[in-house]
Write a structure and sequence with these properties.
Helix content is about 30%, strand content about 25%. Helix 6 packs across helix 14. The chain is built from 15 helices and 22 strands. Strand 4, helix 4 and strand 5 form a beta-alpha-beta unit. It has a six-stranded parallel beta sheet with strand order 3-2-1-4-5-6, with helices on both faces. Among the domains are: about 120 residues, NAD(P)-binding Rossmann-like Domain (Rossmann fold), CATH 3.40.50; about 90 residues, 3-Layer(aba) Sandwich (Rossmann fold); about 90 residues, Regulator of K+ conductance, C-terminal domain (Alpha-Beta Plaits, 2-Layer Sandwich). The two termini are about 15 Å apart. The relative contact order is 0.10. By secondary structure, it is an alpha/beta fold. It comes from Alistipes inops.
Length: about 450
């Protein structure tokens, strides 16, 4: 597939790295030569210095041959113009990153589609939605719905009190009664697709696919109880912080800490049910005075990963039950998890999840790139006469570094065993390591 990425900033750079291993023809455009230097060293990537909103630059990138044009510059107006021009010049699909929720309203979204943009995505809104979802499932580090909520991915660390500690995968499968299945274990910075004899140890992070009815039972096995959130403190008046406050201020007691006094004043005018406090979140005495010890949850979403990690660690040590931090520096993610931060949010991986499905030939309904793990979760719709329908899973020859965790067939949900047979039009949720992703699509196509 020929892919053009307009914008070599953090998101564009991450996308280029992620897609470069998939045998794609990738071109990256940016007006800043310094940003292009960071991606030039990657294999099979062509860089073009220039303005992606000009005809000359787009033609130089051979946009008329592009299967996918992705505009991910910092300025949404540039992305919109570039995406429209790319489509008009011949790109098969054109998508753009935006920063304005108004553009996603149904009537407005339709206008952009009529102009030629196939898909608009707003990473900060998606990140805020993930945080809000996690605040409803406080015993997990990640909780992702698939197939309209019929299936869910539940992620939690195993401690000494967990039912999983010291048991094998076979033991857990017997315990589950076919209502859930462990699909991966993260251990020592490595992700393992488990087999029946593999054992769970204290300190592991386990990934489980479960049907909706069993999700609560699965979370009970984590050894942690779900906490009802009433008091929430948000550090950072970023787009993510503002969206979280906007959606939750009518339900919870929300305090938002913002260091910049001018920004804090403006936020106080727009968030009428949120208490806005102009303070430095790194000041222990100030945070104590503002009541951090009485909070049920703390969310750090400033523009600095270091600040978010430090303040989240402070909140955890001061007894806050659920702590979430935005960490955009990928090298800090494992550090953040190792010091006890419950959940990490990363906009780059959120963006990658939304875009990656456009690069696959198979009908992929959803992809989730998991924070702190090499793996990804994909939801496929099975085509008639697909190879996976020709035999039971035992004899399907499915790659060892991927596993089918759940099947949705109409209103029914199945956690398949080796003797299960998949039908056409089933929805299959697959957990896969990167090496298997290019291979697994053909099984469902």
């Amino acid at each position: 597939m020929k892919i053009i990425i307009a914008g070599a900033g953090e998101v564009g750079n991450h996308l280029a790295k992620m897609l470069s291993g998939g045998h794609h023809d990738i071109t990256v455009i940016d007006a800043d030569a310094r940003l292009l230097d960071d991606v030039e060293g990657m294999s099979d990537i062509v860089t073009i210095e220039g303005d992606c909103t000009t005809f000359a630059t787009l033609r130089k990138a051979s946009v008329r041959k592009a299967d996918l044009f992705i505009a991910v510059n910092h300025e949404e107006n540039i992305n919109i113009i570039a995406a429209i021009l790319a489509k008009q010049l011949g790109a098969r699909k054109s998508i753009a990153r935006i920063d304005n929720n108004e553009y996603l309203e149904p009537n407005n979204k339709e206008m952009f589609m009529n102009l030629g943009i196939d898909y608009l995505f707003y990473p900060e809104k998606i990140a805020a939605r993930e945080v809000i979802n996690l605040l409803g499932h406080t015993s997990t580090t990640e909780y992702v719905d698939f197939s309209g909520g019929r299936l869910a991915l539940v992620v939690f660390p195993i401690d000494a009190s967990s039912e999983f500690t010291g048991k094998t995968v076979a033991d857990i499968n017997a315990l589950s009664g076919a209502s859930f299945r462990p699909v991966a274990i993260s251990r020592d910075d490595k992700t393992i697709i488990p087999h029946s004899r593999d054992m769970f140890y204290e300190g592991d992070t386990v990934y489980i696919i479960t049907n909706n009815e069993a999700a609560k039972t699965v979370m009970n096995y984590s050894g942690k109880t779900n906490v009802s959130i009433k008091n929430l403190m948000i550090l950072g008046g970023s787009r993510i912080g503002v969206r979280i406050a906007t959606e939750l201020q009518d339900e919870l007691n929300v305090k938002l800490i913002e260091y910049n006094p001018d920004k804090a004043y403006k936020l106080a005018e727009t968030l009428d049910r949120t208490l806005i406090i102009n303070e430095d979140g790194r000041d222990i005495d100030a945070m104590t005075e503002e009541g951090i010890t009485s909070m049920d949850a703390f969310v750090a979403v400033t523009g600095r990963s270091e600040t978010n990690i430090l303040t989240a660690m402070l909140a955890k040590r001061m007894g806050v039950k659920k702590v979430i931090a935005e960490v955009e520096n990928l090298t800090y993610i494992n550090l953040a998890e190792s010091i006890g931060i419950d959940t990490i949010v990363n906009k780059k991986q959120i963006t990658a999840s939304r875009i990656f499905r456009f690069t696959m030939d198979t009908d992929v309904q959803a992809i989730k790139c998991l924070t702190g793990s090499e793996a990804e979760v994909l939801e496929f719709v099975v085509k008639p006469d697909a190879p996976i329908t020709k035999s039971t899973l035992r004899h399907a020859g499915f790659p060892d570094n991927a596993i089918i965790g759940g099947i949705v067939r109409g209103d029914k949900v199945f956690i398949p065993d080796a003797d299960f047979r998949i039908n056409a039009y089933d929805r299959a949720v697959v957990f896969s390591l990167p090496g298997a992703i290019p291979k697994i699509g053909k099984y469902f196509n």
